[in-house]
Amino acid sequence: MKTINKKNNQITFTLEADESLANAIRRYVDQIPILAVDEVEISKNDSPLYDETVAHRIGMIPLKMDKTIDEKSVEQLTLVAKKDGVIYSEELKGRVSPVYDKIPITVLKKGQELEILATAKVGKGSTHSKFSPGLMFYRNSVKVKIDKDCPKEVVNVCPQKILVLDNGKVAVIDEEKCDMCEACVDFCKKVGKDSIELIPSKELIITVESFGQISEDEIFKRAIAVLKDDLKEFAKKISK
Ligand code: SF4
């Protein structure tokens, strides 16, 4: 396992794993218990948006999850606003707070008011995307095999800019960035050569992106933990 990139709530790493296992983990990202607003009481809404739209927008705001949050947690947030301008997520106040402060909820004009009591509960992304902690996707990694007679001009066709000239010969850098577009293979074929071969490796390149409730590392670990729990439960049932 090797980390390729880690930035902005996103991690990309290589892992030698079976695709079916990676896909099971990917699907279990939406089985991780996550906190989100589930009920909204709107006592005042002078904004141009319907109550239902305001409620939906609040539901989709990711909330920070500390270690005290468990599957039975219920948290309340209030929003009381009377001002001219955009009402952002930062105006939701409670023991838990939004991950991002500047998610627009609605707009008010001078003299207009918005009063909301929101109740957040823990749920799973498989029932509603507001409970989803993020995304996971993966692709196969390849080895780019380059013959000595490879035409130099091929370095200009790689969209990932990973083909370079090294001492006058074509070489590959950052091989894990190759997305198997085959532009280099096609270019070589057009000039009558078979100089580049893409050889699939056993490794997968996995990317996990967090919406902010829990970290991207935690998403991967917890998806595996929930998958393990379900498999244990399944094994118990079939052994009866
Ligand atoms: S397959 Fe595409 S991305 Fe990979 S080396 Fe060739 S041109 Fe570049």
Please give a handful of descriptors for the protein shown.
240 residues, alpha+beta, Alpha-Beta Plaits, RNA Polymerase Alpha Subunit, Chain A, domain 2, four-stranded antiparallel sheet, 21% helix, binds iron/sulfur cluster
Description:
This protein has 240 residues and is α+β, with helices and mostly antiparallel strands. The protein has two domains: 2-30 and 135-207, Alpha-Beta Plaits (2-Layer Sandwich), CATH 3.30.70; 35-124, RNA Polymerase Alpha Subunit, Chain A, domain 2. It has four helices and twelve strands; from the N terminus they run E-E-H-E-H-E-E-E-E-E-E-E-E-H-E-H. The chain has helices spanning 19-28, 51-59, 183-190, 216-239, and strands spanning 2-7, 10-16, 34-45, 74-81, 85-88, 93-94, 104-108, 114-123, 134-146, 163-166, 169-172, 196-210. Strands 1-2-12-9 form a four-stranded antiparallel sheet. The protein has a four-stranded antiparallel sheet with strand order 3-8-4-6, with helices on one face. It has a two-stranded antiparallel ribbon with strand order 5-7. Helix 1 crosses helix 4 (216-239). It is elongated. The site of iron/sulfur cluster has 13 residues, from helix 3. Iron/sulfur cluster (SF4) binds next to helix 3.
